[in-house]
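Thread: 2'-deoxycytidine-5'-monophosphate complex, take 2
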Amino acid sequence: MSFVVAIDGPAGSGKGTVTKLLAEKLNLVNIDTGAMYRCVALYCLDNNIESTNIANIKNNLDNINIELKRENGKQQVYLNNKNVSEKIRTPEVDSVVAKYAAIKEVRDKVTPMQRKMGEKDDIIMEGRDIGTVVFPNADVKIFLECSIEERAKRRYKQDIEKGINVTYEEVLESIIERHKLETQREVAPFVKADDAILVDSTNMSIEEVVNEIEKIIIEKKNKKRII
Ligand code: DC
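Output below.
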């Protein structure tokens, strides 16, 4: 049976970077599940399908083919055979993705794909419902927390570095709005699993977060080996 590490955390908590670094250090396959919801949102934006038009979304789900490929050690995201790794990370997708991710039919398509990815490889999977819904029996569950202001600060810095023209206030507002939608939705809301270990990254460097989680994973791996 494969070894599964679930990392759940909000936007800007550093979970993407932390997960990538841990995957490299511990030789785990890194899976970013948010990218899959972003693909659904991008497809709908490109085809003018509103998030309120559930019937239309349902009709289109079979036309949305998402592939996560490993190329030169990096995860690349393909939507209907087109590399959309950058296109799914624009503020436009940021601002609508939570609405599409809240739709039951969308989650019913994406969740089984995620479970399948954990069947053969040792994985580290990041998202919002990995420890609660996708892999409730994950070997390690981490809930990465971070204050909303610090998250907005980090996301703003990333956007500016990417050349995206936004203000800090706009980023903060978008993060607050998204957080509300993610935590209050009916299907698979973003909540801490009872048995997840909480790590608060607000005042920690990436390196400190990686070291703390690495220790937890190694301890669990050693225990599993003994058992
Ligand atoms: O992690 P991210 O910001 O790339 O996630 C994009 C969106 O998808 C975000 O609104 C949360 C949602 N998401 C989710 O509902 N469940 C997951 N497992 C991963 C992401």
